Structure prediction request, 1248 residues.
Amino acid sequence: MSDSESDTNDQAGDIEHFTGPVENAWLLKIPEFKKADNPQGLAEESSFSCLFPKYREKYIKECWPLVEKALDGHHLKAELDLIQGNMTVKTTRSTWDPFIILKARDLIKLLSRSVPFEQAVKVLDDEISCDIIKIKNLVRNKAKFVKRRNRLIGPNGCTLKSLELLTNCYVLVQGATVSAIGPYKGLQCVRKVVEETMKNIHPIYNIKALMIKRELMKDDKLKEENWERFLPKFQAKNTTKRKKPKEQQQKKKKEYTPFPPPLLESKVDKELASGEYFLTEAQKKAKRTQERREKEQKNSNVQKQRRERDFVAPDEGKPAKKAAGDSNKVDVKALKSKIAKANKKAKMDLNVQRLHAILEPAEKELSSSESDDFLWKLSVGYLEVQHRFLTACLIQKRNSTGTGTKDTLADEELINLPEQLIFLQAVDRIRQFTLNLYLPKELRGLTKCDLRMMVQLEEAERLRRLKFCLEAFRKLFEVKIVTLQGKLENCILEYIAGVFSYHFAQKSFSNMKEDQLFKDVGLFPVEQVFKSLLIIKGVPNLAMELAKQIHLELLRLTGKPGGFPVLCKTLLANVPSDETPTWKKSEIIAKIVASKGHTKQFYRQVLQDVFQFYEASLFGHDQESLPYVGTCIECMRQMYLLPPAYQELRTTIDNYFVGRFDQLAEPPELLSGTILLERSQLAASLYLNYMAFSGSSCSSLSSSILTAYLQIFLKLYSMIPAAMQEQQHLQTLIIFCLSNREKHQLESVLEELLLGNDSPAMKKLHPRIYLKAGPQGDETYSLQIGPQQVEDGQDEDTLAPALIEILKASNRNLLIYDVFVVLLKLFERFSVGTDHNLLLDAEEQDASQCKAFLRKYVIIQALMELVSHKHFHSQLYENPSDVLAFVKSLLVKSIDHVQANESLLEIILSIFQEYLQRLQTRDDVQEILKLLNQFKRSERCGDQLRAQIDRICDGSKPKDDAELTPYQNAFSLCSDKEPYCKVYGTTLMIGLLRKRDQESLTQKHAVLILALDNLRSVESYAFLNSVRLLVALCDVLEAETIEALVREYQSSTNDMDYRLKIGEATMKTVEAMGPIAFKYREQLINCFLHECKSPVDEFRASSLANLGTVCKILSYQVHTFFYEMFLVIKCAIETDTYLPVRRAAILVLSQLIEGMDNLLDYQEYLLSIYRFLKFIAETERDDVTRLQAAVGLDHLTAKTKDFFNAGNSALATGKLEKEIRIFGIKEQEADERRRNARSGDILTKMLD
Prediction:
């Protein structure tokens, strides 16, 4: 008999103490050890220590007060050393239990092995122990070790959970050990299962044995019997086969021959032998075609034979004669195979005839209606058969183990999948005959139905039948495994539609939540409920009250935990028929959750879900999750823009993004060695901020949230090792924060960052925080609290080098230029006013002067770094006005004795020496040179400064510029691949064209080609400077430039982006030409009118916008083209499906009407224009288009009234005696216009 045979609670209660031999030690009752048994306590102190890994440090630190409290109840002392990573437990003078120190040792061992404190503390009980099983050495092969360890855990941990339930133990698999906590007998079982699993014995055998033992222990008859016959036996099978060595065949020696082996035939030899060489190319092609057809025919015959093989009747043969003695014998295996074949050949569909045949035997028991409606009786019968099959077949099979439960995992695995498939198909067919028939008319088209039927009933009878069908399907959906089937998607949709329509017809929405029909909607998957409600809400002609109730239900589900992710996944799902862009859907979701009027609980829960979904989508490493990231950012942005009454939401968003950085400014505790942030935590926080703040201003959060943490970001950038991803994220965040600041804000921010001014708005990294790198070869690090410093604030390390490095790596020349100008202002401010403060003693004055010198040194170093940056030269030479104005003001102050600082002037001139030499041809630079000569003659100018002024004013240029002609230098720079070189070369080329450089004028066509080619550049600076070059070319090559731009714009072979850039360049060029562009109006207007019919939506809208701009530049002198433009605009508004095109068209028409000078030139079209605008204003659905049409009508009315008022006043004063004739207007046309002006019939009709 095994150890477990008689281990019952009843026997354990009867047997107390034995004086003789013990047969079963598990039945012994161990007496409790009390304090009275050891009143004197322990004679010596005992202690145990245990190291713990670094990743457990945070958890152990958090739960250590609980450990101390638990051990204090047993008079034990616990110590935690975070520096050494050590835990220690000791006995005290009050400790009376000698074994409790061993229990405490097990406690700290379990904590170091990742066991939660709630489980580990149980080991302090007398009846509970622990066992740490080392499994690493049980298997040598690492792959086999991992495989068997996963087998012990099971899918989703089910094997481990089963073992815990059977042994009453807590089991944790961590690395190379298995930790178990529980009663002693359970620990024995756990160790046996673990060791046998690692010896390649599947744990299911031991789990089944434990389950059988548990059941046998309940049977009193089997207590004294041997259980070996009931337990499963495992027989190891060695499936590996020893590889047999290959039999080496004795190679036969070839006979010796003096002749060499024959040469291999070449391709030509083979063709000559087959005769193919003499065939023509056409004959070869025909031969290959014939061979291919023969091969296809052969394959076709093989496929045909294979398909017809299933229809060949089998050979039945002659029936075998049965023996006389075998008449009563039944071959069970043959019978089973016949039944299986019959089931396979059975029909899988359940049609009306088969269901009716099933229904006939149970007609007496079916609950049917009293009416004579055969269809309703059949529907009731279908529902009854559905219910009976579910309860009598599926449920019975699911409960075949006798456990009595319905929804356990073990029971669900017993369902027969083919029968389940038949049942689900039948349920969907029954839905078409029952639930779908009695839905309201507008909701019957929600799902696809094989048969389209309709019943005409009174409303009360329809509602009664609908409720009966809903109740029947409710019983079906109470079975969880049926509800989760995807094939019942249509049933769930119509069930939800039926519940809402039923309560809408009963006008009982107030009591709907208490109805059981509505409560069972919670059984469905949340994604399916969302999808169903959205489909129902999108039904056309849906009642307003019903749509409102569905909308409220959607909001209620969104406000529940996990509702926001489901809403995003439902609306952002890729539907082939839906062409709505993702950003538009994201805006819709943001308007739903971030609109005003929701409850505080709704906002809090949605914002919490947004944070969790944002992190899950961002760190999911899945391309399909990226749209969700943009949606979460848009929702947070909209919530942040809510009025001040929603300040709580802003505070929550701020804490989410910068909460961890607040710890770096104000650590919660200053214990030396405390870890504030691990690398993984810091990298995750930076990545969250990087994705939320580094987009465009309309698709990201406001960077003002991070401005206060710029000092912390720069410190972290200088501390983190180079080439790490965190540095890239910090660089991007710093650049975006600086770029989005106004000039006065940028000045204050840079002053606080570079000069260390104490400001409460700028948070600073705590001085005791330092970065502790991991072991050599490991890229991990952590931010920790360092030891206490003796004197804080003595050594202020500046952040200027880190900031300049970030600016130079960003290639943002505009930002670098703004920072450069701000640094010049700061340098001037801190270089003035260095008088001694009489209130300070000598030591304090020395410290103040040292601080001022350090500030000036930091600014000078930053200026020199930026000036030496070549990428910044193009911007500096393109916009020299601010820098030259600063130098000029500094010279004026020095000459007028306002600022007598010779060292400041010397530093500035040394910085800008090469800059001034390159720009000597500018007028403002000539003024500076005059001021320098004037200052040189003064007595305050030293010898060194005078020599420096002479070098600047001698007119010499840098040596590298003297090697090439100005045109060659500019052309080579324009042809360079680097954007900054292109920009600088373009600036030089523009200057040469304006100076009428002879070589540049000779090569003007080459310059035009180069300018058009540079328009393809992706960099915005290069593109804008190429536009400036085209404008400059119009002064020397006017007609060719306009013609080239029009040709490139109309060329369909060019990229769409390039054509759009050409259109923008054309507008800038025409605008710069001014009135001269009037002679090219025919080319320009025809070009844009032609492209208004382009098949690309964006290009049509761009062409219309360009057309309106050209008309405005030409002062609307386009009456000869007005009718063509009106026809194109009218066609675009009436037929174009792209909304921006219609808006652009009506805007151009409104601008043309506003620009009309003389209504007589347009008298033939005024009535048509008026009727068209009136029609658009009354029928257009788009608000913007309708508004522009109304504006056009107002312009037309105002023009007409002004025309009549001017005519009446002229007649009254008698001033209509003379007329001015322009462009040779004929007398006949003039007379006709005068008659129309006097009569004014058309205009009068229009006003009427």
